[in-house]
């Protein structure tokens, strides 16, 4: 953060301040400034109220646009993020708009020890169940779309 802000200062640009909701470093810096160092052992990610959003598996989507604006990420990297976001939106759209009937899914649900459904449900709702992965539903959703 210090290096980025030194660079921005030299270029006479505003300092970069990452919020608590954007990155763990934002939590740590905010805690240092506002809570002091009386209890340094408490400066851990457990303090982050947004810790379920600040995961390593979505850091690229959260932070690459910012790094691109700062000139740290190249355009090809940003294009990969745009493509990834487009793909994720497409998958979410398919799951939201695909209705699954008991006849189509109950055999699978029984095979993994999950309770059967009794009425049509959206695939996105079924994906929320424990032990069900996106890969489990992808083939079913694609076959239903092609009918």
Please characterize this protein's 3D structure.
The protein folds into 2 domains: about 1-75, no CATH class; about 90-145. The model has no long low-confidence stretch (mean pLDDT about 85). The chain has helices spanning about 1-10, 25-35, 60-70, 75-95, 100-110, 125, 135-145, and strands at about 100, 120. The protein is built from 7 helices and 2 strands; from the N terminus they run ααααβαβαα.
What attributes characterize this protein structure?
56% helix, mainly alpha, single chain, two-stranded antiparallel ribbon, elongated, 2 strands, 2 domains, 7 helices, 3% strand, 147 residues
What is this structure's SSE topology?
Elements: H1 2-10, H2 24-35, H3 59-69, H4 75-97, E1 99-100, H5 102-111, E2 121-122, H6 123-127, H7 134-145
Antiparallel strand pairs: 1-2
Helix pairs in contact: 3-4
Described by strand count, sense and barrel closure, the largest sheet is: 2 strands, antiparallel
Number of alpha- plus pi-helical segments: 7
Radius of gyration: 22 Å
Number of separate strands: 2
- Range of strand content: under 5%
Instruction: Enumerate the spans where pLDDT stays under 50 for 5 or more consecutive residues.
Output: none
Shape: elongated
Strand order of the largest sheet: 1-2
Number of domains: 2
Helix content: 55-70%
Secondary-structure class: mainly alpha
Short account of what is shown:
By secondary structure, the protein is mainly alpha-helical.
